[in-house]
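Two proteins were folded this term; both appear here.
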Amino acid sequence: MRAIAINVGANTNEPGFRAPVRPDGTFEYIPIPESEPAVDPPTYGDLAPHLDTPIPDDLRETPVHLDPEFPEYPHCDRYTYGDEHGIKAGPLSELETGDYVFFYATLTVEGEADWLPPVWGAFVIGQFRLAQDAITGEEYAGLDAAGKAPFANNAHVRRETVDGRVFLLGDPDESALYDRALPLSRPSGGSDASPLVTRLSSDSGKGPWWRRPLRYDGPATRKLLAVHGSISHGVSKYHA
């Protein structure tokens, strides 16, 4: 068993703001804008009724790139993820059945708590345990209709040209959008990597580590899961 953690979600570049995290650990998941022509993608306005974060009026008609997909979240069907960027797709394509992918986001801190960094930080917001080996873009193209069906709602499949270089499918029993965020940043500052990065992952925690894929071996993956279990309080707020 091994894991890779990758950065996802809204940021100060796209769409220009981060989602919040609060002193009790609750947070919001807000996707980035869709950058390519796609078939009937949801918009920020479609997500707005489910969010506490105000959506700027000029963004309400903007389509979103809703990836990763969590079935707890509005307009999502299954636990799927796709990626067209080699820096993430390359390592993700090595994952096998039973391995994990953790999704982390940079979040704006609302309020104060001794465990939170000031202003912003990087936090794990969800996980997949893979229900099958990672599928490369070439392998996806060769699948029959039944093999492609679980990914039908994935943002990279909904694009007019399917462009994912890797596709992941999560086991519904061991995948989740978290109810409490797991901090990867130290309380001293968002850019200060915690031991979950510097001791458990293969990353040094130097430079912009919060933009890089973080690799975890088996013992480190189990430790990360245990730390999350110690802070989880229940199901995601997005559950119907």
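Next, the second protein.
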Amino acid sequence: MSRVINTNAPGKERTKLTRAIALAVRELAKKQAVDTEAKDLAAFIVLALEAVNDTIEPTVAAWEKRNYWVKADKFRLEWGWASQLADQMRVVLLDDDWAGVAQTSMQIAMKLQKIKISEKHRMGRPWVGSWKKLTKQ
């Protein structure tokens, strides 16, 4: 019997989510008016940031098993912004404060500014339906 290799590692999921968040922030910045797609984009950013935050603990758990405490703590500090900005974005979005949404999305864009996404990406539109998911929670 051979080993079972998990191809759905938290790091791979985090990379996929951060690329999708960067794309959503860029699309949201192009919007001139608040419409259903703008609400979907902002809701997707909230949900994806929360999912990114959920990948932090499984990543550092392996390091803590090997007593790499400093590395684990440094990683948590490096990605601590995800939960803070997700909470902030959720509050301003549900309060219908679009100036706050713009400000928070710019903070997120600053964190993800190194991510390169080509014009011919294959991510599609992962934010479709996110507003309904967010309001159902």
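The chain has a mean pLDDT of 89. DSSP finds seven helices and no strands in the chain. These notes refer to the second protein only.
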